[in-house]
Amino acid sequence: MTSWGAFERDLLEQMPLILAGLVNTLQLAVIISITGFVLGIFVFYLTLSKSGLVRNVTNGYISFFIGMPLIVLLFLMYYGLPQSGIRLNPFTVAVIGFTLNVAAYNAAYLKTAFNGLDSSQIEAATAQGFKPSQIFRFITLPQVLRTSVPALTNQVIGNLKDTSITFLIQYTEFFARMQELASTNFQFFKAYLLTALVYLLLVSVIVMLARSIEKRMIIPSA
């Protein structure tokens, strides 16, 4: 049997596990993209607080999690916390760790977009008696989200690709299953090439969806 034939045989034999790993990858990517987006909006909102203490703490949060390598955070939670009596399963560690990290990046994107807004809009809304929460909800947030679509969708792509490191904390996602396939027949090139193609396909789907969203959110006057 040729090497390709042997690889195809092992691939078919392990296909149920590989597909299950792919489902785990997509599930994790979707969850952390949503939780990171929602928490990112909240963190961004705090950066606009009138309280200097709140702003400083929030900016410190953003700097801390952007500055810390994600793998270090995951290792700290999965391998470090048990020494303090706190044990979390791999999926929980991945969701919490990624959410904290992704939220910091998303908040930074939104903050950058906010800095480019015309401040006269906020001043006018304040003069008309709008509350800070109303200004944020109806004026600030819609505009910064629209401006940040490219950055936010790039973050989603990054989330999908970064899930591949969770095999290091024993989460059985797609890359972990492909690692197992490669170790079965030592056809590393074929296994990793197939892995790369699958990720490329998934990223391409996200890019197409992102472009569709961008077209729908184009500001007419722009």
TrEMBL record:
Keywords for the protein's UniProt record, in alphabetical order: Amino-acid transport, Cell membrane, Membrane, Transmembrane, Transmembrane helix, Transport
UniProt keyword annotation of Lipoprotein present: no
InterPro entries assigned: AA_ABC_transptr_permease_3TM, ArtM/GltK/GlnP/TcyL/YhdX-like, MetI-like, MetI-like_sf
Transmembrane segments: 21-48, 60-79, 91-110, 191-210
Domain ABC transmembrane type-1 positions: 22-210
SUPFAM superfamilies reported in the protein's UniProt record: MetI-like
GO molecular function, one term: L-cystine transmembrane transporter activity
Entry's localization field: Cell inner membrane; Cell membrane
A GO CC term attached to the entry: ATP-binding cassette (ABC) transporter complex
Gene3D superfamilies xrefs: MetI-like (1.10.3720.10)
Membrane topology: Multi-pass membrane protein
PROSITE patterns: ABC_TM1 (PS50928)
Coiled-coil zones: none
Similarity-based family: Belongs to the binding-protein-dependent transport system permease family. HisMQ subfamily.
Name this protein carries in UniProt: Amino acid ABC transporter membrane protein 2, PAAT family
Organism: Polynucleobacter meluiroseus
